[in-house]
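Input structure tokens:
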């Protein structure tokens, strides 16, 4: 078994030496929107779907409000992303309860990597200079009584 914390000479304490409290917490109400695939037009122009652009703007606004006058962070950072989706209304009370307690996991068509991509791109130049600074990320996709996207950011010391 490979120990990912010691892989490539990186010790567990190096990655986990972070502040105990996040330096920024951003909560976006409503169902999280994953990063959409780029669209191409016949002229060769590439653009992001409107839904992606709108959600990235919402992330940017909420990130800016949370950051206030603080400049984007420049060093290595760790992020936790929690994407909570409402339980389908058509589900029985028993199935809903199982989903809310984590017995039933959210394995919907939304890919976790696309949730991480929209967070990384949406908060560039606002919370961090560039998403390449993210050295550790944890993404959780789950059911919740309300839908939201919660992003917590720590500076790695």
């Amino acid at each position: 078994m490979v120990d990912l914390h010691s892989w490539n000479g990186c010790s567990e304490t190096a990655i986990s030496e972070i502040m105990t409290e996040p330096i920024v917490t951003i909560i976006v109400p409503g169902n999280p929107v994953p990063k959409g695939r780029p669209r191409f037009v016949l002229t060769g122009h590439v653009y992001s779907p409107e839904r992606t652009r709108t959600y990235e703007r919402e992330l940017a606004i909420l990130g800016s409000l949370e950051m206030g006058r603080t400049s984007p962070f420049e060093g290595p950072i760790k992020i936790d992303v929690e994407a909570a989706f409402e339980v389908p209304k058509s589900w029985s009370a028993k199935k809903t309860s199982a989903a809310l307690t984590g017995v039933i996991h959210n394995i919907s068509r939304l890919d976790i990597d696309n949730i991480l991509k929209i967070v990384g791109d949406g908060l560039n130049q606002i919370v961090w200079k560039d998403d390449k600074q993210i050295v550790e990320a944890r993404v959780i996709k789950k059911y919740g009584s309300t839908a939201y996207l919660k992003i917590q950011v720590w500076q790695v010391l």
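The first helix runs from residue 12 to 16. The mean pLDDT is 86.
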